[in-house]
Design goal:
Layout: H1 2-27, E1 37-43, E2 46-48, E3 61-63, E4 66-73, E5 80-82, E6 88-92, E7 96-100, E8 106-109, E9 112-116, E10 122-124, E11 130-134, E12 140-142, E13 150-151, E14 158-164, E15 171-180, E16 186-197, E17 200-207, E18 210-220, E19 223-224, E20 230-235, E21 243-248, E22 253-254, E23 278-282, E24 288-295, E25 300-305, E26 310-316, E27 318-321, E28 327-331, E29 334-337, E30 343-346, E31 355-358, E32 360-362, H2 368-404
Parallel strand pairs: 14-21, 14-22
Antiparallel strand pairs: 1-4, 2-3, 5-32, 6-9, 6-31, 7-8, 7-11, 7-27, 8-29, 9-10, 11-12, 11-26, 13-24, 14-23, 15-16, 16-17, 17-18, 18-19, 20-21, 24-25, 25-26, 27-30, 28-29
Length: about 400
């Protein structure tokens, strides 16, 4: 009967631990990146019993109760939820973000709640540990916006046009042709085309009435002749470095007489509704400041600037494991490696790693209905173990009462 009490006690202890695991899972149902765990149960050692007190009549081995052998982590992916914060990241598939704490130790997490600190380094919002990426050589490195907070200006080198040069006209003028100089300043040029002979046009580029360059273009059957479809000038505003500027008429530029029959143009046989020649694009830009940062699906830092430009930084470093036996939960939504040989490092979208989702976080994978079902089982087991102790105690009391008589 004393053995029965000890067995009941082992049940109480085991189910109490199970209740603790369930309570922890349930409490973290809204914790980003949390992975639920379950307690592993086993029976304790067995010993031979003696029903009659002699060597004869033994009834075989009997168990000595319940034991627990640790917890098992469930790494099933949780739901990905939108947050609206571009630096909230989630891994869709296998992989964990790599963090480095103040002591230089690496940790891993599925909770990608990051921010740039005052030093411009990407860190974990929860504890300030650095989020690790990979530099061009593949080595682990910080992810930072230092040195990239501004985008330098770029002088225009190519200006494109689109539309129709009216064949029946003698001059065609395009105003407000925007270009950028070598210092990032903006200029509005005027481009004037003058017919010099059949299908031949001279091109004069001016700023504020002062010519800054000239050239010629040639049309054939309403389209520019490729060899004569571009005009190159040296654009040198006062006090600025000279820049070779190409005026490109080779694409989307035609020369038909408006509203006249034209059997060579089947898509518009009467040349009606032709759009007059106009400025299309230019490839220069002014200086700009950093306006935002996010990560693409491959985990590459993408920085955007006020001048419409973008640049890329380091790529996020991810880690994944072969077996959950190589992973240990350490709190703070983080995990440690207990067996480096079972871990692999890499980047999103490669070698079995999932893709990175910007503006999203992975929430807890706790299944509340399963936890409540397990809670009922733990409660019933605890009650049964308690009843065993109560019954054994009553039997002992009965035995003492019999002895007293």
């Amino acid at each position: 009967m004393l053995d029965s009490i000890y067995i009941g006690m082992s049940g109480l202890q085991g189910y109490s631990r199970g209740l603790k695991i369930i309570a922890n899972n349930t409490a973290n149902i809204n914790t980003p990146g949390f992975k639920s765990s379950s307690l592993q149960f086993g029976d304790m050692f067995y010993a031979n019993g003696d029903q009659s007190g002699t060597s004869k009549g033994t009834f075989g081995s009997s168990g000595h109760g319940l034991m627990t052998s640790g917890t098992t982590l469930n790494f099933k992916q949780g739901e990905l939820r939108q947050t609206g914060n571009a630096l909230d990241l989630a891994v869709d598939g296998a992989g964990m973000f790599t963090l480095k704490d103040a002591n230089g130790k690496l940790h891993y997490t599925r909770a990608g709640q990051f921010e740039f600190n005052s030093s411009g380094v990407l860190v974990n919002r929860l504890d300030g540990s650095k989020v690790m990426g990979r530099d061009t050589s593949g080595a682990l490195a910080e992810i930072t916006v230092n040195g990239t907070r501004a985008s330098n200006s770029k002088a225009s080198t190519t200006v494109t046009f689109k539309g129709n040069v009216d064949y029946s006209s003698t001059t065609v003028t395009v105003n407000s042709v925007k270009v950028i100089d070598s210092a990032g300043g903006e200029h509005n040029l005027t481009t004037k085309l003058t017919k010099t002979s059949t299908d031949n046009w001279s091109v004069d580029v001016s700023e504020n009435g002062v010519s800054v360059g000239t050239g010629n273009i040639v049309f054939l059957n309403g389209k520019t002749v490729l060899a004569s479809s571009k005009v190159v000038i040296n654009f040198a505003p006062a006090g600025m470095t000279s820049t070779a500027l190409t005026l490109d008429f080779s694409t989307d530029v035609s020369s038909f007489a408006a509203n006249t029959p034209n059997p060579t143009n089947p898509t518009n046989p009467t040349n009606s509704n032709l759009t007059p020649l106009a400025f299309n694009t230019q490839d220069g830009f002014s200086a700009g400041s950093l306006t935002g940062a996010s990560f693409d699906a491959n985990g590459v830092l993408v920085m955007t600037y006020s001048n419409g430009q973008t640049s890329k930084g380091n790529r996020l470093a991810l880690g994944r494991f072969d077996t959950t036996d190589a992973v240990q939960a350490v709190g703070g939504n983080q995990f440690d490696s207990t067996d480096p040989t079972a871990w692999h490092s890499g980047s999103a979208g490669e070698n079995g790693f999932g893709s990175v989702k910007s503006g999203m976080v992975e929430i807890s994978n706790v299944d509340l209905s399963q936890e409540f079902s397990d809670l009922v089982i733990m409660q019933r087991g605890y009650q049964a173990s308690s009843q065993i102790i109560t019954t054994a105690n009553e039997m002992l009391q009965e035995l003492f009462a019999m002895k007293g008589k």
